Every structure is written in C-alpha cells, then in structure tokens.
Input
Amino acid sequence: MIPEIGHFALALALALALIQSVVPLVGANRGKLLWMRSARTTSIGQILLVSIGFAALVRSFVVSDFTVINVAANSHSLKPMLFKVAGAWGSHEGSLLLWVLILTLFGAGVSVFGSNIAESMKARTLAVQAWISVGFISFMLFTSNPFDRVFPAPADGNDLNPLLQDVGLALHPPFLYLGYVGFSIVFSFAVAALLEGRVDAAWARWVRPWTLAAWMFLTAGIVLGSWWAYYELGWGGWWFWDPVENSSFMPWLLGTALLHSAIVTEKRDAFKSWTILLAILTFSLSLLGTFVVRSGLLTSVHAFAVDPERGLYILGLLTLSIGGSLGLFAWRAPLMEPGGVFRPISREAGLLVNNLILGAATGTVLFGTLYPLFLEAVTGEKISVGAPFFNATFIPMAFPLILLMGAGPFLSWKRADLSGVLQRVKFVIGLSVFATLVVWYLLERGPLLAYISVLLAVWLLLATLREWTMRIRLFDIPLAQSLRRARNLPRAAHGMTLAHAGMAVAMFGFIGSSAWKTEEVVFVAPGTVIEIAGFDVTFEGVERVKGANYFADRGSLAVMRDGEPVTTLYPERRYYPIAESSTTESAIRSTLAGDLYASIAEPASEDAELSGAWTLRILYEPLVNFIWIGSAMLMLGGALSMTDRRLRIGAPKRKSAIPAVAAPAE
Amino acid sequence: MTRMLALLPLLVAVVFGGFFLWGLNPERDPNEVPSVLISQPAPEFALEPVAGLETPGLSRADLVGNETPVVVNVFASWCVPCRAEHAVLTSLVERDGIVLFGINYKDEPDDAARWLAELGNPYARIGSDLSGRAGIEWGLSGVPETFIVGTDGTVLYRYVGPVVGEVAVAKFREALTQAGALKQEGV
Output
C-alpha cells in the first residue's frame, strides 16, 4: 500500500509540475499577478508530494519490503540500518527520486525565501524549474519507476554493492546532487532572464545565494567522494580522473567561474551574456554527468544498470534543455546591452582571465573525458584517456590561475594601479620564494613541478592573508580598531579570504600527497618488517572476524618509530557472501603531518593463504589531510559569503529624500 | 559577429549530441577491449635474454612446435600487479606443468634479475623487451597481459590485467583447459 501511495504522489507531482510550467509563464507575459503567484503553491505542493514519494521509498527500504523490486535488488534484511536508508538512493531509480526531490527543494526554496525577487522574474524562473521537473519526473515514472512490485516476493534481497556500504558514500550522493541539481535553479534564473530579455545587478544578486549554495554542496559532494575513494578503494589516491569524477568536477570548475563572473555582473553591470552562458553551461554539464553515469556511454568505475532506452530518454531531455536554452541564448544574448568598461589592468580584467582559464580547463577536462567516444565514433579505435593527459594539461593551466588568485583581490575595479599593487605584495613575493627555498633545502628531493606548486601555494596563502590584513589595517592601527574594522567588513569579503586561503591549504595537501608520497607493495608473512617514511611496520598475521553481513580477514600491523610503539593498524579484506563481492578496508593512522595508510589485498594463491602470506600495500601520504581541511575552508567561505547582508536584504532601497508623510505646513 | 558568437555554444552542443546518440547504440560495449590477435598467428619478434639471467631469450620460433600450447606472460619488475600474479603463474607451472614464457617489458635487466631472484623464476624463456618494440607487435594495452599460444603459433587467448583472484584464475584455467594446455579439472 505504502509504495502505491508513493507512486501516486509522484504522478500528482508531475501534474502540478505541468501546471507550474505553463500558468506562471502566461501570467508573467500578461501581467496577471495571481497566475504568477500560483507558482508558490504548486512548487510547495511539488516538494510535499515528492517528499511523500521519497519517504515511501525510504520506508520500503527500512522495513525491507522485498515486494518492491528496487528494495529486493539493492537491500538485504541483515544490512545495518544506516545503509538500508542509504540504499534508497543507491540504485538508479532511487537516486533519480533523490534528484527530483532536490530539484523541487530548490524550486520551493526560491518561492519561499525569494521574497525580494521581482514577481515576473520569480514566476518565469519557477516555470523553467517546473519544465525540468516535468522532464525528470516523467523519466522516472515512464522508464524507471522506483516502486515497481514483484510477486511472489523474494525471501531476501540481493544486498547493496558492498563498496557502497560506507558512511562517506551514503552521504556522497545527497551532497553531490544538492550541488549538481542546485545549479538547476541558477539555470532557471538564466533562462528566465533570457525570456525576460533583461539582466542587471539585481538579477545577479538574486542568483548569488543559490549559486553559492549549489557550489558549496557540490564541493562537499566531490570531497566526500574523493575521501571515500581514498580510504575505501585501498589505492591511497584521492583523484583518478575517472569519467564520472570528471563529470562532477566540470560543473564545479564552471560553477566557480560563474561565481566570479556574477560578481562582475552585480558590481559593474558587465559580463552579462557571459554570466548567463556560464549559468546554462554549468547546469548542462551537471545534466551531462547524469547522462554519462546512467547511459553506459563511457567506461567508468561508476555505473548504474545500463539501459539504452533510458539513455535515449535522458538524451532527449538533454537535447530539449541544453539545445533549447542555448538556442534561446543565441537568439536573445546579442540583444543584451554591454555594461561598464574597464582597463586591461583592473579587477574586471583579472576576473575575466580567471574565467577564461577556468573555462579552458573545463573544456580540456570535457575533451579528455569524451575523447575516447569521439575517436571510437570516427575511427573505430578504442583508447582510454588517463591521468597523464589530465595532469599534463590541467596543472599548467592551474598555475597562472593560482598566481592570479593571489593578486586579483588587490586590484581595484575599472582601473588598477599595477605598480602600487606590486609595492604592496613585494614582501609577500619575497617571503614565498624564501619559504620555497627553505622547503627545498629541507627536502632536497622531489620534482621541480612540486617546488613550483609549493611556491604558488605559499604565495596564494600569504597574498590572501596580506589582502585581508590590509583591509582591516592589522598592525597599522591599534588592534581594537582593527577588530572593529573586521567586524564591519562585509561577510562576503571574509568568505573570499577563507575560501582562497582554503584553496592554498588544499594545495599543500595535493602537492604533499602526490609529490612526496612513498609506497611499498610487498608480500608479507607473519613477522615481516617493512620500513617506510621512518616507521617500522611489523606484520603480525591475519585473523578471521565476522561482521553483520560480511566476514573479514583482518591483518594486524604493529607500527613503531625509533623503537617506540606508535599504534597498531588493522586493515581488513571483507567478503560479502550475499552480494558475492569483497572490499578492502584500509587502516589509516592520520596525523596533520601525513597519513600512514595500509591495506591488504587477497592472498596471491591458495598456497600463500595457507602459509599466511599476504600482499600488503603500505603508503605514507604527507599532508594529505590538508586536502580535507582546505576543502572545509572552501565550503565555510562559501557559507560565510552566503550570509552576507546584501543577499539577505536584497537590492538596496533608496531612501526617499522627501519624508513619506509631509509635515503639515502650519 | 555577436550573433555568430552567441550561436557557437548551440552548434558545439549539437555536435556533442550527435556523438552521444551514436554512443548509445546498444551493440556497443565501451568496456570491451578488442583483441586483434585472437586466432591470428603470433607476431614476428626476437628478443635477447635478460642480461644477468641464465634463462634463454624468446623469439617467434620458440612458440611453434611445442608439445602443448604455451603461456606467454608480459611482466615487469616495476609493475605492482605482476607481483601478485607471479605466485599464480608459479603455481600453474609447478602444479599443473604448463610451459611459461615471459616477455620482460621495458624493464632494466638488473631490476628484472633482482625481482626474479627474490620471487623465483618460473619462466622457461624470457625475452627482454627493453624498447617496448615487441610490446607494440603484441598490441599490449598495459602490463601484465597473458597470452595462450597454440602449438602452431596461433594466439588462442588473451588476458588483460593480472590473473589474480578466484574469478580471474578460474577464467584463465578454463581457457587453458580449452586450449589443451591443462588436463581436465580434478583429473
């Protein structure tokens, strides 16, 4: 009964979405306020109905209702409760429902919190959002119904892929989708602006909190996925340039460009068509990601059950949304009047270069990701494009970007004084070079590329801090006054400082864990001692342990340094009998200085198993935790910027010069 | 001009869309790696032995006229999965009596000799392919790869990646059995 209620609620949500995709739009064109306002009711109705559907699905997973095919295929009665709930979005159908839930969440969010947005703009935006709803709810209902039943019901379920039974991964899709799908509302704003034929500072300000929210969640989603890959896959890497990773990274890159170009639109009324284009393309890349994961188009470690019919349906949706919006762009964008002018050395120019680099980087990642498909279509040859391509192309583009990122905030709008800026940062440049030389002196080894990266990361960190201290005139004036200045500084400024510094911190993690990583892969028998990065690791053997729905071989490794015991690591190899697959659970000793990371693979042969010999992979990843710290700073920076006063109160209202009630002349 | 520029994103999107439509063809499997060599004669090559090893070198002629089909394994000391695979191959040689040849791919002879000294040398012949030229002839996509070559020098089977783990080993043994290099299981 409950699954049918869920199914029915989704059908009703589709009906509401259909209404919302027409009525507010007509209202906006004819100036009928009531029609425009209907979007508020329908968007809240949509989120309620989709929530009912989602709750029904979660309930089916929680009570292990195996009459629902989706539950039978992806759950098991013995699975821990957290993963039963997370199983609701572990499959193609369930994740699509989550996708739609978040889509309606953002629509309802704009109608509830967007009280400062002009009625016609809000109505058009919500109508466009409803078009997307119609597309995806119908996709779900017609090709991927999460509530399909099976009779007779199987006695128990097939279990969720054990690799996915993990806290990091249970949270990864919701955050990733909040980001991916969050850009839908930005897209809707952009299409609405094209329909309206007007983009101005107020528009940029309306869009900003939603862009920031989507960007933050996408950052969180990507980082969670990366963190999961780091500790779960047992390879010790945190980024693999896998097509699906790339598909989440591209909207992030372009979304970052959008955040910056929207600033120019807001402050200087320039870059209008460019901002609109970025808003459209960012969501288009999110859609592309959805398409790649669900169509089996490319070889990837991530994939849902592939079905060409579904792929075709999504491609149809993509054609309509991307083709339609870009067509609208081609028609309307040339009509937008250009905004403020600026000199080659100015903050606008800096942000323009930032956008060009981020755009080019996105293009490169897109090209590398899809190149195997293009080549196969044209010549029939099959290749894969791996990390070497992306490292060779992406990193050189990132360097000037980081260089500029440190300098950009010093530039003033319209026209900046380059020599003045250099004057202010020369101390920072000197200090960065000195710090890099110290690192070189201390380490003596490592590729040149790594030292260039260190130089840039130190530069970014110091320049960002210097800019902040200049704003509050720290050390220049008494501390109390500086603190008062800091309090009065807009939160967006603090947000920028925090995010840029976070990027620098994350860079230390990227560099340390890739350039100075040490790795040993050895066959070990009980008693074998491995030396790595100053640690002596003794393999003590493997024992069999039993978990809720798996059993595991757990190795124990005694870690010593300079003869002092440090810790004992317990890497596991788990076997899930129901899902018939196994996973590695690496053991990590985490400190700020670096992670000692151990994982055991299976015994190389039956003989080896009898003698207790295992393949042990042990790594030392210096500074790797700075990646997570830096990413958290990026997100906090975004959050801080989102709470900026100007976004809460909306466009500044001009104080009327004449008192509203004139004093009676007496 | 502006108009053309504004149209550009749409044109790019249309081209992408065309490729995607093509890519959705249900016959197409992006995960499948084509093996051009299957049922073809093994390529022509002649490799010197690894310097510092007693084991003789390997050439095309050594693949022809053996009593049973032979296994040609491409390995390198720098290749991590090869280490895990080594034990599987050793057991195939020692317990099942298969004939194992090796191509030491882009590997320093010193490193290879040390590697084999440490892990044991199950190979009857090893050719040193320092330049990777023979690897091109064999159409390698990576290391390790393992081929089964029939007594007439025809390539019967190709396994890409390490033959490690129950599933992979079972698959490989099955191929060996079919090729006639292995007696029926359990006999």
